Amino acid sequence: MYLALLTAAGLVSLVLATVAWRNRRHPGFGYFAAMELATTWWILCYLGEQLDPARAHIWFTLKFPAIGVVPPSWLLFTLHQMGERPRSRAWWFAYLWPALLLPLVATNDAHRLFFTEVVQRHELVGLNGPLFPLHLLISYLFFLVAAWKLLRDWQRRRRVPSGLLFIGGLIPFAGNVLNEMGKASPAVGAYLVYNPTLPGFAFSALFIGWAVLRYRLLDPRPMARDRLFELMPEAVLVLNDNDVIVDANQAAARLLGMPERDLLGTPWDEAFTAPEWHSIPHGAENTVERHWTRGTASRWLEVQRNNLWDRRGRSVGLLIVARDVSARKQFEQELRAQSYRDRLTGLSNRRYFDDEAARLQSSREFPVTVFAFDLDGLKQVNDRAGHAAGDELLQAMAAFLTQFFRAGDRVIRQGGDEFVVLLPSTGADEAERIRGRLWAALDQFNGTSAVPLRFSTGVSVAADAGDWAAAIKRADERLYEAKREAGAIPV
Questions:
Q1: CA distances (Å), origin 312, targets 140, 215, 308, 309
Q2: pLDDT digits (tens, 9 = 90+) for 363-406
Q3: How many of the other CB atoms lie within 10 Å of CB of 203?
Q4: Which is the CATH superfamily of the domain at 340-486?
């Protein structure tokens, strides 16, 4: 019965190793495959001890590299599952001890450092030598760190997979502790017919096998990977409950400039370092637009977030799709710019004035100076020389205003022969100095222009948002007062 149980556990471990290896691109699955394969080998060697007594010592020796591989593989798998993938390549040292175990145990009769003696009881038992406590310390340290990580994650987030993996790792650990207690205490050893470590691994393999089928622990992706997934032009990423990337297609790897193998296991905030991207996994909106810049490349992405649920309605992660909408965004911006642009002069138009006025009233750019202009003589030019000549006059007015005012000032044609210039963060004293330079600049412009200009202007300053409407009205009143004084309109 005992050997049948071990045989079943060995087969389960082999199946788990195969499944994990086939999915080794997922974080830590390669280490899980190594652990289950080592467990399979361990069980096979134990069965060899029992069924091939003539070579029992050979089978006994061959199982120790597998024993050494299990603890570091379990820890590395756990770290990847927690989203704490080790960055240093020095982790290969974790397998140095398992590599030393085979020559150490094979030559034990010559030095007696690992076992003082190997005796036959119900099974072969090694009596601990001076190096064996080091072996226990290394193995226990790997298991305890993994158990602490899993228990902490379960306590914080009540994640069922963490709790199940904690139990799966605890079973063989408890069996080994009990075995060492039996070696140290004859009273305890009297109750141990067999070394409980291996049965612990057998029960652990069966338990984890059940958990894999029940909770899909070796398949964190709720959607199947197929060729379409890889060939999709959109960047697709799958996140687990820890916001760690557990799957990504080639478009996502190209977007981030990372190989897929390095992208998997990376936390979202490390892959997308820009602050405006951090809220996407748990933001208020499921669809947002974000600007993305990498090197000299710049684009707009529409990012969609979808929750993933298992068959029991439990959340198992997130599916995030990023679609390049740069062309659409550019087209929208061009349409918006055109809707704000006066075709004849190239200046901003009345629609822009209304939107900019609303924006300024909610900004901190006060005081705002308002220059109102009225181009004199436009009707006479149109009547005498035609509308083409009138258009040239309007274009000359636009050219003058654009040259005279600062780059940050808003030069607007409101319609007909009326122009407005908005000067944010400009007070009355500065406005008066600008007004004082205006006429000298006009004389200089007319001296070089084929189309001389004449205009009237009115200036006002809006102290704050509440004064905005009154400031616009004052500028218009002063404009018409200036036109009356110049005789451009009847008194």
A1: 36, 10, 11, 8
A2: 999 999 999 999 998 988 988 889 999 999 999 999 999 999 99
A3: 17
A4: Reverse transcriptase/Diguanylate cyclase domain (3.30.70.270)
